[in-house]
Amino acid sequence: MTRAMSEARPVINYNYAVITGILFWCALIVVSSVYVTTPLIKPFADEFQVTQSVSAWTSSSFSLFYGLGFLLFGPLADRYGRKQIIAFGMLALTLFTLSIGLINSFVWLVILRGIQGFVAATFAPTALAYVFDIYPKHKIVTAVGFISFGYVTSGIFGQVLGDVINQTFDWQIVFVVFSVLYLVTFLLVWLVLPSSEISGGTKGIQYYVHQAKIILTQKNFIYCYIITVFLLLTFIGMYTVLGDYLSNAPFHLTEKQILYIRAVGIIGMVLSPLTGLIVKRLGLMETLRVGLAVAAGGLFLLGIGSNMIIIVLTSIIYVAGISMIFPSIMMLVGELGGKQRALANSFYAFMLFIGAMIGPIIGIALMNAVTFFLTFSILASLLVIGFLVSFMIKR
Question: What residue intervals traverse the membrane (predicted)?
């Protein structure tokens, strides 16, 4: 029924370019909150007199509850409607993000970041199901590509915007600015996005438990989720370590110079909206494997970079690989999911941000235990494992 609805939607004459633009913006601004505290870990440690490992919980608490929220809001979107859940999330983000900007307690900072992450989970699993509800079949790949582009761009956008505001004002203003952006986003979603059909109004908890058992007993999903965990684990882990790497010998870069290095990584992200074209040429699995190989190679070479040109180029290569992996694994999980697509994507999003939760913790632990070269090499080896696991997936 959903497929038939998807193909019938063009008769209603939706402006898909506008809808895609709003979904891209939602993906960008929501997931930016995952990364916004990455450049703030050291300022938090200095202000609240805690270690950087403890300070990293401002990022990890968000990611933990973000992942848990996916398991709830996917089914709720079936019951109450995709647009309604997305709009609720944006309004809740407005309020809780503003609250973070008004406190000056580390404990409350960690608690509110967890709550912020939980309500932020309204978007990711809901958005993909919304695309399948609203878009005709031939437009779905492009829409998914732009949503993925928002996700991967947020990794740089969130860090850069947070760093710029913190250096210009202070960390509280970072969250005040984001609360204003969420309010604007809520208005866009509520006033512009069309509503989709409510597909699961009569489905209870037993239905979703049964669906979850089906998904978690299939090896293909397990392999996909293993790869998924490594994506944000290495991404956030790398950027957490990169700041310290560049601020020490032999580089001794200032915070502003490190900010520029982070920003340059956006160049590698242009591949994300183009992944649909790459898939048509190479195939879905081949595109996924190329992305994993490119990302692993870029991350390994980053660790042996002896000058800034090599470091900048290898960081772009790494980000380009990650930008190919994101939409590829999203489309693969959606394809394998079939009737369980919505819940399969909820588990995908959950595993993705489990990686985001442990990324900064592992990055800092490795940085304190071994050399920068070994740190980047260990992170790269996780992507190599993902590359090998991809050959176990049977379509």
Answer: 12-36, 56-73, 85-109, 115-133, 140-161, 173-193, 221-239, 259-279, 291-310, 316-334, 346-366, 372-393
